[in-house]
UniProtKB/TrEMBL annotation:
Principal location listed in the UniProt entry: membrane
GO molecular function, one term: ATP binding
Name of this protein: ATP-binding cassette domain-containing protein
Species assigned in the record: Streptomyces durmitorensis
Start and end residues of each ABC transporter domain: 20-250
Name of one Pfam family that matches: ABC_tran
UniProt record similarity statement: Belongs to the ABC transporter superfamily. Drug exporter-1 (DrugE1) (TC 3.A.1.105) family.
Domain of life of the organism encoding this protein: Bacteria
Organism lineage: Bacteria, Bacillati, Actinomycetota, Actinomycetes, Kitasatosporales
Membrane topology: Peripheral membrane protein
KW Cell cycle (keyword) present: no
Record's keyword annotation contains Translocase: yes
Coiled-coil residues: none
Subcellular location: Cell membrane
Length: 332
């Protein structure tokens, strides 16, 4: 996924207009290559999810793009600023919520917020106003005067994200933000993230929950062995994996036999009176099957479309039986 560059070697306007862009990002620790020349381009106001097995380099990518550690190579821009020449401007434009909470358990939720306001050098009154608004927005007003040590895991995670937003960043890095949360708290966090994006914030998300990426991300990249194995929308990635099919079930044996004769390359199930046709789940494939049945005057009693999910994609791309590189490139 090459990023456009001008003839003089400078990043093009397309690169600079992206909220986050990386070309040839590399990072090694000793003789271990963690990131092996990855390219990313993330539009403003979108959610980008980076998936990969433990140790794939997801957190390393977040740390580099948020200026916490340096890259070995690569042209990197965040918020239109060059990480190599203007890291301070990058820090002013971003917020980071890491895997481990930044909440101080010894002080109250409100005091945590005010501490962040001081770190952002906000005037006292402005800091108090920002803290109060965010505590209300994250449904923490009632608990604001209580020590953070008394908060549940979900409350601490909401407070952590609220603290990240004190400086009003337009780009947020969320490194596995819902790890360890119960399903209700996770869904609450999803709603908060969606609200941020609807307000124009760009979110770079790493997660171990494939359902989370499916729910939230506009685009998803799968990182494996230091490289981007595939990138695309959730639907594009699912269509890479074989196993998708359309299933037709009949109650009339005659209709079942007629459909089996009319359709090509079907798998039959005589006992269930069902037909299975390989499909990528596209509208075109479904329409062609229905048109064929209509032309023969055949009507199925039940039609279901089965497509691989992100679990299938993840295991196929990060396991030993990878899909062909040529196929992967088609969705980049």
């Amino acid at each position: 996924m090459p990023t456009p560059r001008q003839s003089d070697g400078q990043p093009s306007s397309a690169t600079l207009s992206a909220a986050i862009s990386a070309v040839g990002l590399r990072k090694s620790y000793g003789d271990k290559t963690v990131l092996d020349g990855i390219d990313l381009r993330i539009p403003a106001g979108s959610v980008f999810a980076l998936l990969g097995p433990n140790g794939a380099g997801k957190t390393t990518a977040v740390k580099i793009l948020s200026t916490l550690i340096g890259a070995d190579a690569g042209t990197l821009h965040v918020g239109g600023h060059d990480l190599a020449t203007d890291p301070q401007a990058v820090r002013a434009a971003i917020g980071v919520t890491g895997q481990f909470s930044a909440v101080d358990n010894l002080i109250t939720g409100e005091e945590n917020m005010l501490l962040m306001a001081d770190l952002h050098h906000l005037p006292k009154q402005e800091g108090r106003l920002a803290a109060a608004e965010l505590l209300e927005r994250f449904d923490l007003t009632e608990a604001a005067k209580k020590p953070a040590s008394t908060y549940s895991g979900g409350m601490k995670r909401r407070l952590d994200l609220a603290m990240t937003l004190v400086g009003n960043p337009r780009i947020i890095f969320l490194d596995e933000p819902t790890t360890g949360l119960d399903p209700r708290s996770r869904h609450t966090m999803w709603g908060i993230i969606r609200g941020l994006v609807s307000g124009g914030v760009t979110v770079f998300l790493t997660t171990q929950y494939l359902e989370e990426a499916d729910e939230l991300a506009d685009r998803i990249a799968v990182l494996n062995d230091g490289r981007i194995a595939a990138e695309g929308t959730a639907d594009e990635l699912k269509r890479l994996i074989p196993g998708g099919h359309i299933r037709l079930r009949f109650t009339d044996p005659a209709a079942y036999k007629s459909a089996a004769s009319a359709l090509r390359e079907v798998t039959t199930d005589d006992e269930a009176l069902a037909l299975q046709i390989r499909s990528d789940g596209s509208q075109r494939k479904l329409r062609s099957i229905l048109d064929r049945l209509d032309s023969e005057g055949i009507e199925a009693d039940e039609l279901t479309v089965h497509t691989p999910d992100l679990d299938d994609v993840f295991f196929a791309l990060t396991g030993p039986a990878d899909i062909p590189n040529k196929t992967k490139e088609n969705v980049r």
